[in-house]
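Handout, section B. The chain below has 407 residues.
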Amino acid sequence: MPAADPFDQGTGSILRQPKAVWATAGASVVAFMGIGLVDPILPSIAKGLEATPSQVSLLFTSYFLITAVAMLVTGFVSSRIGGRKTLLTGLALVVVFAGLSGTSSSLVGFRAGWGLGNALFVSTALAVIVGAAAGGSSAAILLYESALGLGMACGPLLGALLGDASWRYPFFGTAALMAIGFICITAFLKEQPKPARRTSLLDPVRALGHGGLASVAASAFFYNYAFFTILAFTPFVLNMTPYKSGAVFFAWGLLLAVFSVLVAPRLQKRFGSLKVLGASLVLLAVDLLILGYGNHTAAIVCTIVSGAFIGMNNTVYTELALGVSDAPRPVASAGYNFVRWFAAAAAPYLAPKIEEWSNIHVPFVVAALAAVAGALVVRIRRTALTHQAEELEPRHATEDGVAVFAN
């Protein structure tokens, strides 16, 4: 049976959602803002704390390292106390640790606590949105990706606007916005039904025993290394004022949002998920090489353009992770995120170190090779992926020739 188009007003639009879904999606926007918030102010933080780029990049490393490990805990917690309480716990932790980050010069530890809260919130938010959204799982995933894209776009902008006055202000701004999200979740989201079976700490690891899910996670690991080389290392290469850097990453985030929500689904229907993903990863690798070896203008353009490839990749990877195995979606998502966030932790630290050991071009070469490695995993493991997930290959309707996905 063909899957419903989430943009089809007759079957349920992505925009027609219950208040609980909008409250969760709105809080998700703020949660994702926290990822790119420090981008425009990384050079300012380095200057203010008299730190090297690799030391400042530990803000990302500690954040994502804790996020990765916490993915094993999110299902364990939410299956026992419920999705609503898990979301509120995550939001409360972000409010506390984001606020503390703005008051201290020892940011790494507080960013780790922030990462724990974000992991509890983000992974549970996806499950809540999928469970409560109208229009089926496709609409829910696109709504989640919309929140991701909007948050990624607005995070650098907020960081630039507040960071121009002081590098501490963006942290306070995030704490305030997450507090608003806490109030919205409290007011509009009712407790979700608990799963019939409680999730153990090792269930996400066991889920990775599935060949398809393990392949998706492995490919996403390499992709995330490339992704977060751009996010965490490029600001030092651009070396611009917070306003200018914020504008660059705002444009980057807009492309990410547009391509994840509008472009990726249409390309998937026409060519199939695996072809779209493989091509996008190769194009991202080319973009990284030009970014690394081009002049300053080329670096700005390639940074913005990378948002298009990242947007497409994010959507396809999320759908693959949730649909490629028979594991419950929260468990599959936790196992997938457990693997890929380790690369997000490694890239911000290794990229500046690689520059110190070699030159400014080599970190982008390594990131490009990582993107190609991700594409090779998809290519080599395509049989397992297509065998395990019907929706990865397009089927063409005989009546009108429109490509659709099978349920």
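Note. The domain at 19-404 is CATH 1.20.1250.20 (Growth Hormone; Chain: A;). Compare this with the example in section A.
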